[in-house]
Amino acid sequence: MHRRPALPTVALLLNTLISSTFAALPANQISNLVTFGDSYTDVVYVADGGIVWPTYAVRYASEARNQTGGAPVTHYPLAMSGAVCSTKLTPGDYGSVLENQVPGYVDRVKSGAIPPSVYGNNTLYTLWIGTNDVGPWGQLTGQTVAGATEMTTVVDTVECWIDWVKNMYANGARNFLLQNMIPLELTPMLSREGFDIPDWTAPKNSTAWYLFTKEVTTAGNKIGELLLKDLAPTLPGAHLGLFDAHSLFADMYAHPEQYLNGTAPLNVTAPVSACHTADTCTVVEGTDKDSYLWYDPLHPSEQANRVVAQQISQIVLGEENKWTTWFS
Questions:
Q1: Which DSSP string corresponds to 293-314?
Q2: Three-point CA angle 266, 251, 196, nearest 5°
Q3: CB 142 within 8 A of CB 151
Q4: Interval 119-134: pLDDT, tens
């Protein structure tokens, strides 16, 4: 006797429907962009040889607003090159999101450096962190903080992302965009080829690095997605989004002709700035550099950052974005 397949429960159907119907931010709502993270987002110590994505994103969004008579978007940067999510989890000489950037934001609000006009509903808060936590100076080589009895895992890292949301929510933030980890195994330094850099002199197994990095970024991103989805219903009035930087960069790697527009042959494996020793470097100049996905062995190129900026500016403007999922 054949049994009829069990029908989905009403609760399951409702949950599926609700989880798939959250829309983008309303048009013209966002006037400010507050960015947290590491060198991928730092606008002071620029890591792409030109201009990084937040500056371009604000420019693109402001230009679009200007065409319709709207007000420009203002940027308040908190990201710091070399940062980790938390120095309680990962050793870091350049500060962290939880111990430095979040308190820095609170201090700037109190001092008026970030004015009262920047408040929860009209501001988008972004976080892009993880490379230094899981990379060569973190979990990849078993680095631990002083006094730790166990090595930090990627679960700890992505739970730290959630702690950032909770902290910022407690400080009045309501619109969040978490940018997940890119496929670091595609960067020149962590690829199978294992591009050497002067800053790393210790022995390394390029294949092992590639496999570990691929596993940890893929698994970490999925865990982070599930944690963010689980968090969303617990924060009344919040708008939580996940920007899939991992898939975007994988697509740029697989289809560079759709994203890179320089005057040299397209290149997704070598960097614009390549230094095999401290005194031996080659640097691609002019418009040729826009044919490259990577600026150096670990950082995206300026053209890649323009692509990221185009996507983030859509989110700021309240448009639908193919790389973004909203959980509330």
A1: EESSSSSB-HHHHHHHHHHHHH
A2: 60
A3: yes
A4: 999 999 999 999 999 9
Q: Name the residue with tokens 């490379």.
A: 131
Look up tokens 């390549």; give the residue: 274
Kindly list the distances between the CA atom of residue 275 and the CA atoms of 179, 204, 206, 267, in Å, as whole numbers in the listed order: 29, 18, 18, 17
The count of C-alpha atoms lying within 13 angstroms of the C-alpha of 70, restricted to the half-sphere facing its C-beta, is 18
Question: What DSSP string describes 31-56?
Answer: -EEEEEESTTT-SSS-SSSS--HHHH
Per-residue burial over 281-297, b if 16 or more Cβ lie within 10 Å, else e, is eeebeeeebbbbbbbbb
User: Is the four-CA dihedral 231, 232, 238, 243 of positive or negative sign?
Assistant: positive
Tokens of 247: 């898939």
pTM attached to this predicted model: 0.92
Gap between the Cα atoms of 306 and 80, Å rounded:
19
**What one-character-per-residue DSSP string does 155-183 give?**
HHHHHHHHHHHHHHHHTT--EEEEE----
pLDDT per position as a tens digit, 75-109? 999 999 999 999 999 998 999 999 999 999 999 99
